[in-house]
Every structure is written in C-alpha cells, then in structure tokens.
Write a structure and sequence with these properties.
By secondary structure, this protein is an alpha+beta fold. About 20% of the residues lie in helices and about 20% in strands. The protein has 4 helices and 5 strands, in the order H-E-H-E-E-H-E-E-H. The strands form 2 sheets. Strands 2-3-5 form a 3-stranded antiparallel beta sheet, with no helix packed on it. It has a two-stranded antiparallel sheet with strand order 1-4. A hairpin with an 8-residue loop joins strand 2 and strand 3. It is elongated, with a radius of gyration of 23 Å. The termini are far apart.
C-alpha cells in the first residue's frame, strides 16, 4: 500500500530534473569556478606560480622568432585540467590579475593549455631596470 502512494505522488508531482540546454543551473554566491586572467594587469611577479598547489600556472619567457630582433616575450601558461579552483593564486596576486568566476570551466574532450602573452613586459624594459 505504501508503494502505491509513493508512485502516485511521483506521477502527480512532475519532473524533478532540469531540461539542461534550455534551463541552465544558477550557481550560488561564493561558488568557485573558472579562473580568469587579466594579462594587462599582470606584473610577472610569479606569486601565483609559487603558491599554486596543483602547479596549474607557469610563467616563462620565449624568443619571438617572428620579429627581426628576436625579442623575448613573457608568457603565462595555464593548465585548466590541473586547477583545483582553490583560489590561492587569486589571494596571492598583488596586482589583481586573477579572479575566480562562479561558473565552472566548460567540459572538454581534450586537455587544453592556454598560453597568453603578458603585454606589459618587454625585453627593453627588463634590461633597463
């Protein structure tokens, strides 16, 4: 008798699930999600790289062979599949170049590494200091 009541109640209540593509989930305030980088605010101090427990951030230099003077460019590599969204890098960045959004990273079929050039840093500025 109990089971009939449960079945009838579930039939009359309607679906409990969301229709995913049409209805997106709203994330609660304070949830940690995708890491966003603002390269124009980065000063290449390396605090985010040092503090990251998952080693998801790397700062590096490379030769720009597309230019005649072979200038050095300053790069930031971000391994999103390693990131555990702990927020340590956001707290450690003194320039506010990193922040966590509430929506998580989109699912991916392959591991992606985002490489961004840091525009504030150029070889001539580094040598002058």
């Amino acid at each position: 008798m109990r089971m009939v009541g449960v079945v009838l109640r579930n039939l009359l209540r309607g679906p409990v699930t969301r229709h995913y593509p049409d209805e997106r989930r709203t994330f609660f305030t304070g949830s940690r999600g995708r890491l966003v980088f603002a390269p124009e605010r980065c000063e290449f101090c390396g605090e985010c790289e040092r503090i990251c427990p998952a080693r998801a951030i790397e700062l590096d230099t490379a030769w720009d062979t597309s230019r005649e003077d072979y200038a050095i460019i300053w790069l930031r590599r971000y391994y999103s599949f390693r990131c555990i969204a702990c927020g340590s890098c956001v707290e450690a960045c003194p320039y506010g170049a990193l922040h966590l959004e509430t929506e998580p990273e989109a699912p991916a079929y392959r591991k992606r590494v985002s490489v961004e050039e840091i525009p504030n840093w150029h070889w001539s500025e580094w040598v002058a200091s």
